[in-house]
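Hi, here's the filled form for the chain we discussed.

Project: internal
Contact: R.S.
Residues: 406
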Amino acid sequence: MPSTGSAGKRGTRLYIAGAEEIKAGKITDIYFVRTKKILEKHGMCNTWVRAEFHSYSLPRGYDWAVFAGLEEALEILRGRKVTVYSIPEGTLFRPMDPLMVVEGPYCEFVELETPVLGALRHETSIATKAARIRVAAGDRTVLFFGLRSLHPALAPMADRAAYIGGVDGVSGTEAEPFLGLKPQGTMPHALVIVFGDPRKAWLAFDDTVDPHVPRIMLVDTFFDERYEALLAAETLKERLHGVRLDTPSSRRGNMRKIVQEVRWTLDLHGYKDVKIIVSGGLDEKEVAELRDIADGFGVGTSIAFPPSIDISMDIVEVKRGEKWVAITKRGKLPGMKQLYWCSDNPLDKRVKPWGHVPEDCPNAKPMLKKVLDNGRIVANLPSVSEIRAYVIDQLKKLNGTNDSHA
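And the returned structure, exactly as it came back:
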């Protein structure tokens, strides 16, 4: 039972783990703790293994995923007597592609399987969904507004993963100190409700907020979207950059027709340069259906809570004496492997046993490279913006487009 305070009431706390607890292996599954104890007792703790990270299946309808979370995985493993090989963070991959390999005495990282997989799976899942939204949006702006869907401790991670996947901006205030990204966003309905008048709220925003922040006004709090959009344009005139429609489902009807009405009305009154941003319950389907008439999207829950990319870790080799023996559980392919990139097509890759070059790929480029050597990071890790650019470049090649966004 939890301890209680002097008044007999249990105290409150935030149920989060710190970085040091995670790196120390305290945030793990109990069977790994028991496994380590058994191996120590039977003198097998120094058995060397090679453990491969991979995904043998993707969510229904997914042909690829975006590998993310490598930097956090390396931070968890840093200082342990292990060597890590990995594909670059941000690489598009398919089922059965080897993503990362950890080599070393098993007890050096046995209890870290849980947090490493957690970091890789969560970031990969978010980055993949963000990339799919990016593709659906084409050249339209996409902002990530999903932090209210997540535990607050995960906010910087989610912003990082979504940005890697291809969104143009994130709303989290800690994105700047953690990632070097200026947070972006408009205003909540609460601001308008407190003022009691949309015009007073818009003017207060314009009067108070840094002039470098685009004036994008929320236009669906009290009145019809078409009416409030025109009211915002007449109130702020040339200072208005755009309007945001965040219409609740109970009032939405046909969102496309609402956007068309707003666009027609703004154009009719000479406000053709005013952008229209749509948010609220959007997923790939809605984004794709609106991208020809909307200028941008605010996407939250569908990115923050995406289908899970099922990355797992399996031992694929064990060192017996001086020889590495290929061995793994049934249903998985034994032996350490290399992933080769064969052409400009980001999905044109081959999986081969380590040291074997694919014969049908004359310009094969090996992708798994050493990034951690005996606990020390030996690779120059790219910035979040560089990883995002790498993802966008692959998406362009995948979709045969020259769009600046995807």
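Let me know if anything looks off before we file it.
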